[in-house]
Write a structure and sequence with these properties.
Blueprint: H1 9-56, E1 65-70, E2 73-81, E3 86-92, E4 95-99
Antiparallel strand pairs: 1-2, 2-3, 3-4
Length: 100
């Protein structure tokens, strides 16, 4: 005998469980990708601001610190010199990146 009235209740539950299983596995992956993209964007903005900071001042006349606000995030740009090397750095939230 063939059921021609549509899906049975059991088939509906089975397809719903597969759909939920796919959603449960894909949503965390998508959200982690979005977080990594957001972190990468913040870092890229920091490097761009650092480039502008370094380009703006001659090597001998860097101000000690400069603070810039971009897209609601405060970036602190600074220049540090050790006995071995010089480097320009930026700090935002709890991250710090430096370029020699």
């Amino acid at each position: 005998m063939k059921n021609e009235r549509g899906f049975s209740f059991l088939e509906g539950l089975l397809s719903l469980s597969f759909l939920l299983l796919i959603c449960i596995t894909l949503f965390p992956i998508v959200f982690s990708m979005m977080n990594k993209l957001s972190d990468g964007k913040k870092e890229m903005i920091g490097y761009r601001l650092l480039y502008e900071y370094v380009e703006q001042y001659p090597v001998s006349k860097y101000p000690l610190k400069q603070t810039r606000l971009s897209q609601g995030i405060q970036y602190e740009l600074f220049y540090e010199e050790n006995a071995e090397n010089r480097r320009a750095c930026f700090r935002y939230e709890d991250h710090q990146k430096c370029v020699e």
